[in-house]
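Exercise 7 asks you to align residues with tokens for two separate proteins.
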Amino acid sequence: MAFFLETLLGGLMAGMLYSLVALGFVLIYKASGVFNFAQGAMVLFAALAMARFAEWIPAYTGIANPIVANLIAFVGAGFVMFIVAWVIERLVLRHLVNQEGTTLLMATLGIAYFLEGLGQTIFGSSIYKIDIGMPKEPIFAFDSVFAGGLLINKEDLYAALIAAALVIFLSVFFQKTSTGRALRAVADDHQAAQSIGIPLNRIWVIVWFVAGIVALVAGMIWGSKLGVQFSLTTVALRALPVVILGGLTSVPGAIVGGLIIGVGEKLSEVFLGPYVGGGIEIWFAYVLALAFLLIRPQGLFGEKIIDRV
């Protein structure tokens, strides 16, 4: 029982990180109605910015306190993501208002390649480290209930708590604020939103900036665990099954989908892996997403589209 609970907790903590990355896809889709293939590049670009700022700030300012240096680096990287959002809206999105979804989709692909190249040019292509002070050593909890206690990775626990806090904040933002309602209106119909006075250009800057902050937090966490390297762009691919499962238009769907995928991967690898030769954790999420595409294409919480002719 203790081993099962350890696996379950590990899956839940990994699932929160998947939910965080999936939120970036949901945010952009809700504002523009297009799948953002640049989300992985945004995670990499934001993580590179923070990692390099965390190196440069002590070297050029003499700030020795790592907490202060990391805080300044986070704020600086957040400002960089705001500039990225503003440039994307100014140079790309405002020229593609009311265009076909395929056009916007191709635009996000171009943005992805541009950000990857720009990140390598400005920040370099080496592997960088982000140390935000998350403890690496595991702990044993509930030793009075289970013999030997439950083994919990403290780094994964802290990362899951950070991701959960941001997910909750964004959920409230979308449901309770006028800006969140405006985002939903823009996603439904650009022209109608403009006709009632919603500033489309400003809304797009806001949503791309928020998606950039989500990418920054995700890149910070993954960079702390794995190091900041160009393989971080593939982290976004792990969130694809999450948005398919939860629904591209649903913030709660991203949360639930991430938890299901995280738990499913861990449990299947541990309990089914020995019977299929291992490696099931790599493809389990994609098989589950394929099944949902066949049975419920809009996902668990997505809106079913009905075309009347």
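Second protein for Exercise 7:
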Amino acid sequence: MRELIADIGATNARFALADRNGFYQEHVLQCADYADLADAIRSYLHIAKPENSPRRAAVAIAGPVAGDIFKMTNHPWAFSVKETAAALGLESLHLMNDFEALAHAVPHMRQEYLQRVSGPAVPAARAPKGIVGPGTGLGMASIVWGGEGYIPVPGEGGHATMPIKTRREFDLFEYLLKHKYHHISAERVCSGKGLVNIYNGLRGLDGRDDLPDREPHEISAAALDRSCPLCRESLDLMMAFLGRASRTLALTLGAFGGIYIAGGIVNKLGRYFYLSGFEKEFIGEGRFTDYMRGVPVFVILHEFPAFIGLQADLFA
């Protein structure tokens, strides 16, 4: 019997069927095309046409999970877990934070799906691990050793305040605080939306009204082909901020088990990411530079990493 698993972000809704041996029939839908989670699930099941209707579902979703009513952080979907399960004829619907699912996945991730960025090639055994993922928003989670295995610890670290170091960064944040936000979290500058924030902030600071409005992928493309210096600066700043946010998580956890970078953005950047300012900001300067050199950092290459965690959790 194959059950339903799903990884729901603010933009993409990823679905698959799973059993004890793995997951199958992966398909990606656009959240904006559907009224709610139940509507998207019905569409996927129509596409997948499983031999038997799933009885159970495990869903990773972007936002804090608490109680029956769930509201997504960066998307309008809001729903009752119980009512959704009943509407779909499910015996159980287990909802978890999307980065909790990634935390479940990391201990099961094969080496072929991990690209080392810095630090030791082999993580310390049973040491804490941190997961950071820039996508539409910025997710974070961790896992700690519980005696018989790793225990996921979901969190909302992406909404912690982002520190600044340079005058340019100070001016950027001052501009964003004046024109858009009351608080600059890591997510505001370390995500798809964050890249747009940086670009628009720098445009405003430099008086570049001649530059067009751009979507995140357009800023990245113009940065990578060097056709727009402001786009390049925006992407460079985002990578520095991401390194800084990842460093904070690593220091907080003592993450000698590794920091694992997930999310679609980094893999799309390719070689640029590994040559960017991420590693320099992650290692940092001062008394804890050697400490940070001992923390391994990996990029997760798997196309559907949350599915690994959802499958492991559903059939534990």
